[in-house]
# Entry
Amino acid sequence: MTQHLTIVEHPLVQHKLTLMRQKETSTAVFRQLLREISQFLAYEVTRSLPMTTRPIETPLTEMDAPVLAGRKLALISILRAGNGLLDGMLELIPSARVGFIGLYRDEATLQPVRYYFKVPDMLEQRLSIVVDPMLATGNSSAAAITMLKEAGARDLRFLCLLAAPEGVARMREAHPDVPIVTAALDERLDDKGYILPGLGDAGDRMFGTK
Ligand code: URA
# Structure
């Protein structure tokens, strides 16, 4: 991917996103819509995966047929909301390896602190797709990507449902080599760090917590 920010403007994605934004949308429907949109986003983020060919036999003849090249890719979910994108993506890419990163914000320093980190091996040989629905300040996403680079990842992409301009700018500054794929670029953050107009707290809406 060459572009730093790709917005998936497909009409079905935009329609489903509007349903997700509406406050009366139930937890069950929100979760289902997220699963559906994640598959469109996965389609876009994997568009330029390297390919090779393999000799196969159809019932009629032989051919060299296209297949994905290289190691299985790694999907890295930032807990907990990333898991809402992960499920749908795994349906499309069932052999992907999966990692999880848990971060919380230290109230004194306001910096993201890692409480969980478990990722696939040989990251230096895999494409890693980091998933988190909301790119808000970008602090936790940027920190997660730094941790993955320290663990060896070289080829990374970031996939989210909604992005704020502040988060995109933070990512561009910290990780200009990491393309971002999203369904929408919203207006701004509010003073609590929520995306406006946004959809509220993605984790709470998908898991039914408050
Ligand atoms: N995280 C969320 O879940 N929602 C926002 O609006 C910002 C961060």
Notes: Residues 76 and 156 are 10 Å apart (CA to CA). Residues 27-45 form the longest helix (19 residues). The mean pLDDT is 96.
